[in-house]
Amino acid sequence: MDSSGPQPPVPPAVFECLTRVQRMLLAAGYCYVAGDADTWPLTMVQMVKAGDVLLVAPWIPGIGEELAAYWSTTRAQLGGSAGLLLVGTAETEDPGVRGFFQQTAGAVGYLDARGGQFRLRRGKGWKSKPNALQKHHLRRFLDPAAGRKSASIDCRGQLHRHLEDQQRTRAFIERARRVEGFAKPRVTIGLIAACIAVFVAMLLLGDNPLDPKEGVLLKWGALYGPRVRAGETWRIVSCALLHIGVAHLAFNMFAMYFFGKVLELLQGRWRLGGFFLFSVVTASLTSLWWHPETISAGASGGLFGMVGATLGVLLRFRRDFPPKFWKGLRNWIVTILVYNAVFFALMWRVMDNAAHAGGLIGGLLIGLVLGRSPVRSAAPRWWAWVAAAILGAAAAAFGSYAVGRIPADAPLDPPGIVREREKREKLAPIRELMSLLNAGDATVEETRKLSQAARSKTMDPRAAARKIREELLPKLEDKESAERLLRRAERVPDKEGQLRPQIEALLEARVRYAHTVLRAVEAPGDDSRIVEEQREDLRLHAARSAVEQTLHLIRIRTTMESPAD
Fold it and tell me: Do 366 and 425 belong to one domain?
């Protein structure tokens, strides 16, 4: 038992179990956020760890309805991840305990400190109960031997300290809000909106942002060294608004909201915007220095700058932060950096780690130089402006050096775009030829429909024959159109020389088919004419299929050939 106060008027078994539970939770990383140290352990305490909220209270017979009403209200405020743990001497099947479970919802556990049994109801949903409300944890709470390692923890003293830390943190945050007039993270939300707007604009204008090609990325402002050297310096900033796919955008916007709102609270709107912009510049310059001929895009360099600036403010103004808040924020930043280091080590082939490092360093330096105390609205001192000027000059000099390393003869388009352009140029004759072939197919199809209309008597056979003779046959027999089609075929890279004879055969098959249809329409009821038409239709289909197969093979071969070929 704790020696910091007199024995409370509760059964010894309940006191011991309550103390053991809270000691074990404290040892596991939970901390107090609500409770009354003077009436502990009779008071209900609220403990939190990484988003898990657990209320721990003694079970007092006769107040089940009042406790159920309080728990319902508290659960609605805390959300589905909150849980309630009660400790008493009543049996788990006691009518009062059973009635409480029936009246309430959510994750609730009950420990029979005397009988060594427990009752547990799991909440609904994947995040509906704290981690502590699991069967193996409840068994350990009831085992006196399991609490020996944490027996030295002073629960009442910890409750005092934690509540004082909570009060200091709340006062610190409220004072930081007043200094800058902070209400909502407006700049953070504005940056997120700008990135989403670019993504939506790409969708609306027909450029696929889900899996954009290199040409699309360059069109929308991605970073690429040779183009920056050629004068497109705006890409150093514009690349931060461009993202490659939904996952890239969603991950960065999620991180931006959490990083940005913290930094905007601590430093205000204008500093957040300035720190982000400076970090984007240093991230882009570092990326140009490390791999100048690689296309890169995304706000992650600026995000790392936000983390670096927050760290700089923490280091410079440590005395202005409540110790608990300072430690928690420091651990949060370290955890972010460690997780990202591991993640990017695994994904280094597709991640621009140079930009991340440049953004982090730039944010750290600008935070150290121009950051202010979160609770004091003092203008930067003269040496801060001098240091900022030196920092800006250093960034400019580094940028000049990084851009100067880009080869002067580097092409303005990366190899992938060059290959894609050459491929399109090689495939252009095939596309033009297909367009002409499709025009002839349309004439043949119209002829076929007239034949069917005349045979089904939905159209006068004489009118159908007249249209075929006067309009459609001249198109199919036009020698100038045929020569134009053959000239286009000669531009197609047909190494085997099969395409021209096949197209000539197709043209002849079209004319024969049209004449056959005309004869069949002019002699309605003659079955031999219909059979002849069907035979010519099959020959026409075979000729068209031969051309299509040859063009398909040529297209595959052309696509697979390298530019050097």
Answer: no
For residues 253-266, give the mean pLDDT: 94
> Which residues sit opposite 57 in a β-bridge?
86
91 lies in which domain range?
12-161
| Band (129; pLDDT cuts 50, 70, 90) | low
Report whether 558 contacts 493 (CB < 8 A).
Answer: yes
Query: Residues 199, 74: one domain?
Result: no
- Indicate if 160 belongs to the active site: no
Report helix, strand and coil shares of the chain as percent, to nearest 5.
65, 5, 30
Total of domains in the chain: 3
Residue 279 catalytic?
no
- Longest Cα pair distance anywhere in the chain, in angstroms? 118
Q: Which of 404, 433, 461 is the last residue of a domain?
A: 404
Task: Copy the structure tokens of residue 146.
Answer: 């399991």
The answer to the question of residue 169 being in a domain is no
Q: Could you report the per-residue pLDDT of 163-205, keeping only the tens digit for each?
A: 999 899 999 999 998 887 777 899 999 999 999 999 999 988 8
Based on the fold, state whether residues 251 and 362 are members of the same structural domain.
yes
Does residue 100 register a pLDDT over 50? yes
Domain assignment of residue 475, yes or no: yes
Specify whether 63 is located in the same domain as 135. yes
Residues 153 and 222 in one domain: no
Q: Flag whether pLDDT at 378 surpasses 80.
A: no
Whether residues 386 and 425 fall in one domain: no
Say if CB 326 and CB 351 are below 8 A apart. Answer: no
According to the model, what pLDDT value does residue 285 have?
96
**Residues 238, 279, 300, 451: which is the catalytic one?**
300
Instruction: Flag whether 167 is in a domain.
Output: no
- Tell me if 547 is assigned to some domain: yes
Round the average pLDDT of the chain to a whole number and report it: 88
Please report which helix (H) or strand (E) contains residue 202, including its range: helix 186-204
Statement to judge: residues 450 and 305 lie in one domain = no
Choosing from 137, 243, 356, 515, which is the catalytic residue?
Answer: 356
Boundary residue ending a domain (128, 161, 194): 161
Structure tokens at 99: 């009635």
Do 197 and 335 fall within a single domain?
yes
Strands in 82-88's sheet, in edge-to-edge order, are 31-34, 45-49, 52-58, 82-88, 107-112, 117-121
Cis check: omega of the bond before 292, within 30 degrees of 0: no
pLDDT digits 0-9 by tens, 70-88: 898 888 888 667 899 999 9
Contact 524, 458 (CB under 8 A): no
Query: What pLDDT does 457 receive?
Result: 84
> DSSP letter string over 95-131?
HHHHHHHHH--SEEEEEETTTTEEEEE--SSTTSS-T
